Amino acid sequence: KINVKNIQGNILTGFSKDFQSFMFLKFTDTVEAKRWLKDITPEVATVEELQAFKDLFKLTKKRRGTELGTVQATWMNLAFTHSGLQALDVSQHELDSFPEAFKAGMKARANEIGDVGTSAPENWIEPLGSKDIHALLIFASDSPIELRKYIMRHATILESYPSIKIEFLEDGMDRADQPGHEHFGFKDGISQPGIRNFTQPANPENPDQGIPGQDLLHAGEFVLGYPSQIPEADPEHDGPNPNPGENSHSGPIWTVDGSYLVFRRLRQDVPAFRKFVEHTAEKLGISKDLMGAKIVGRYASGAPLESSDAQSRDAAMLPQQDPGLRCPFLLDDKNINNFEFGEDEEGKIVPRASHIRKTYPRDQGGEESRTQTHRMLRRGIQFGSSYRPQIEGFYPHGADTEYPQDRGLLFLSYQSDIERQFEFVQQSWVNNPDFPEKGDGQDPIIAQSPAGEFKMPLPTQGGCPVHTLSIKHFVTTTGGEYFFQPSIHALCILAG
Ligand code: N7H
């Protein structure tokens, strides 16, 4: 049974709030840091609280027939870096027992995950990646005013603890002009792994239940102390998993019910991405909509390019216009994630190096259980203002005069093993030009090399030529860190 009272809410339920802020703290006095922790632990929102809110929201929506429910909430969650746990006086023996990637921090893992060139840590925004980052407070709210008030309250609490310094504050928000869409214009936050004994499974007899295509994984993939997809006896095991694994575990015993959080500040070059899509579409004689979909694996509306329906599997006849706009049912829970890649082995419909296929290849190359050991719960949110060429034409320095092109994604993912999940995906799939097949190319959205190749079979009536496109680098890492997000019980232990 999942301990919903003990697990922080953003991990399993997800805040899903339009306004979120991230406050990075440094501790310089252990006793004071522990006192502060004791003070704020009662405010940390749990899975149980978030689920109760969701149920209430659904109920009001049903009653009022509108999503504009009156129920609103403001929440806080809390995580620590390895140096933060050290500053809280965790014993050396326990500190040593954490996994390598977490101990090293994201900056030290730059070579493993390909943060090179302009994405290299020496170009990151200070103090992101430095050992001065000890804790991360995540605030989330439906209302920007409530969020501000709540942050001010916490800033006031911090005034009574002068040894704790606010090192950095970053605001994230859903795009007002295109809600739910990231800055390149694509709907995000669609495909998430389901969790056994937590997520409602899809029911073929009742389409209102669950999301078809969302497989339910063992909770230990995302929270420590539960069965995982991998038998513990064979940590290298990457094949089908006949038996649920032993309880996933690493680090001290109090890490049970906690999760590792990967935070990445990813800047997106929207004008360059748009130009690339336009020029390439024109060169290949296809629409911009289809070109974008070939790169991402979904049209901008979120409509999947791949279909579960055999009749619409003619790769040469893919819609040129985004079908999600005309046929909103394609975006229903029933259809939006209900596909595999197995019958499109060659990537004629969804190129094998497209973003969603690289980051979760589903049944590519055989059993899906092989890829299910590398999943993450994504909790990202946008930062910066939307790119508006009309306005930026009037103001040569862009809409935001101080940082005209600083917009992108605050990527957050939860997993129980940073190396096997986030790092593996980034290194062995995304950045690897030979995955899944030799020469397929790199992920055109998030591969970190300055330039790379992207192989795109484009079926025409005459055959299926493979186009090898040279892709530039549209996403730059401007900071990041690995955190551990403890259970409520563990917060009490850390507070002493
Ligand atoms: Fe991605 N994008 O706009 O193109 N992502 N992503 N991502 N991403 C997804 O299914 C995007 C990033 C994953 O299960 C969609 O939710 C952008 C990182 C995974 O089918 C879109 C950035 C990593 C999935 C984007 C970015 C991932 C996924 C489709 C950076 C991990 C689910 C919507 C600025 C290393 C795949 C959806 C599945 C989906 C975009 C970052 C991973 C539109 C712009 C760093 C696992």
UniProtKB/TrEMBL annotation:
Obligatory cofactor(s): heme b
Keyword entries, A-Z: Heme, Iron, Metal-binding, Oxidoreductase, Peroxidase, Signal
GO molecular function terms noted in the UniProt entry: heme binding; metal ion binding; peroxidase activity
Origin: domain of life: Bacteria
Pfam families found in the cross-reference section: DyP_N, Dyp_perox_C
Domain Dyp-type peroxidase C-terminal residues, every copy: 250-431
Annotated stretches, region: Disordered: 188-214, 227-252
GO cellular component terms, semicolon-separated: cytosol
Keyword Methyltransferase in record: no
Ranges where the DyP dimeric alpha+beta barrel domain occurs: 6-154
Family: Belongs to the DyP-type peroxidase family.
Record's protein name: Peroxidase
